[in-house]
Amino acid sequence: MSNEPRNSLVALTTRFAFAGLAAALLAASACGGEAPADQQTADVRATTTTNFVLTGVDSQPLPVDITCSDGSIYNVNGGTLAIVGDATYSATLQGTEAGKALSVSDKGKVSVSGDTYTLSSPRNGTLVGTLSGSVLTVTGSYCGGNHSLVYQQQ
User: Fold this and answer.
1) Which of 121, 147, 154 shows the shortest CA–CA distance to 65?
2) 122, 97, 99: which is closest to 110 by C-alpha?
3) For the residues of the chain, what is the DSSP string, one character each?
4) Contact of 80 with 91, CB cutoff 8 Å
5) What is the value of pTM for the model shown?
6) Which of 9, 13, 64, 129 is 20 to 30 A from 101, comparing alpha carbons?
7) CB 15 within 8 A of CB 55
């Protein structure tokens, strides 16, 4: 009889240890089950497009004339910027040059850190933008000179 309580205690301790281990494994697998949801959220963010509309150039509202380094004058009357996640962008400027309609497009890579957007343009080099509320101001070399393009988020 002296061994029965001891054997019962060992059996009971083993059961609690097994139940604890099972609970820990279940919790770990449940946490592991959340990773795909987190990955899905990250995937959605990475593919979400944020659209902007050009509202001004060099602190002037549209339409505005930009004098290029070759002496030509480009009248900018519209534009868009689409940023896909924190990976790519595409931009278009519309306007006229010497009375003829002109549309200029650019695509490249973008990296986002807080409110700072760094656009790597094959055409214009590195452009840096700052987001303040829903206004993104992108500064860089366009048309042979430095200009600031002001976009409103849509």
Assistant:
1) 147
2) 122
3) -THHHHHHHHHHHHHHHHHHHHHHHHHHHHHHHHHHHHHHHHHHHHH-EEEEEEEEETTEESSEEEE-TTS-EEEEEEEEEEEETTTEEEEEEEEEETTEEEEEEEEEEEEEETTEEEEEETTTEEEEEEEETTEEEEEEEETTEEEEEEEEE-
4) yes
5) 0.70
6) 129
7) no
**Cα separation of 82 and 91, whole Å?**
6
Which of 91, 68, 54, 94 has the alpha carbon at shortest distance from 146?
68
What are the tens digits of pLDDT across the range 61-116? 999 999 988 999 999 999 999 999 889 999 999 999 999 999 999 999 999 999 99
Query: Whose structure tokens read 């099972």?
Result: 22
Beta bridge partners of 81: 52, 91
Residue found by looking up tokens 């494994």 in the block: 25
Token pair for residue 48? 């979400």
Q: Rounded to 5 degrees, what are φ and ψ at 17? A: -65, -45
